Amino acid sequence: MGTVTRGTTNPNRLRRMDRWISAAHGAELRRAADPVAVDLGYGAAPWTAVELLTRLRTSAPRARVVGVEIDPARVAAARPYERAGLVFRHGGFEVPLPQRPHLIRAANVLRQYDESEVAAVWARLCARLAPADPAAGTRGGLLVEGTCDEIGRRHVWVALGPEGPRTVTFATRLGSLERPSDLAERLPKALIHRNVPGEPVHSFLRDFDRAWAAAAPYASYGARQRWIRSVRDLAADWPVTDGPARWRQGEVTVRWAALAPGI
């Protein structure tokens, strides 16, 4: 179920997203009896699925990865890369696994779809996630859907649980950034057409640029220190959910409700 994408991919392209997943969701994966992650729409080459397995196992040693692609030829080409903990399957948004996965990563998949289609795809994928288990103290599986540039310097993604959207994360190689609103070109499909006056995401990026400008004196200590100061100031008015340990990585995560499109 879905449409064949262009399949563009590069080694190390999704490192920022993977690094965040390991930090934010690693504990959930460790607690799972059989932690299964899906690399949905991995593209014309299997690099991102191979890398996802390696990175997840740093925080969840028992994690398994299933690469899912709607193009049978891409699945056949990926099969030689299978190994213990990594397999490839033909499929799409139905996520053809017998169990509910604890992670679905869908990077650069929805960019070719219409904005009107996003909510239905999100709902379908969230319904496939492992459910929350309050008795065990787990929040359930995680869907991470977003967009990045060709070499992974700039990336924005939405994290969703079985209940729906939770957060939006902006991540960048700080040396490539002139101002935070440069990340607007990598907003996921649910937000990219909403970066206009009157929409929350536009206000957020405007305020981020203002905080960045006000933090210009910190540039003498490096782009990282300027980013940290900017996010600290931004957090006075926006519900930032992470702290300096993530900001140092060139990231900031904000609650989805604050950036959700207006009606």
Automatic annotation (TrEMBL):
<protein>
    <submittedName>
        <fullName>Class I SAM-dependent methyltransferase</fullName>
    </submittedName>
</protein>
<keyword id="KW-0808">Transferase</keyword>
<dbReference type="InterPro" id="IPR029063">
    <property type="entry name" value="SAM-dependent_MTases_sf"/>
</dbReference>
<dbReference type="GO" id="GO:0032259">
    <property type="term" value="P:methylation"/>
</dbReference>
<dbReference type="GO" id="GO:0008168">
    <property type="term" value="F:methyltransferase activity"/>
</dbReference>
<keyword id="KW-0489">Methyltransferase</keyword>
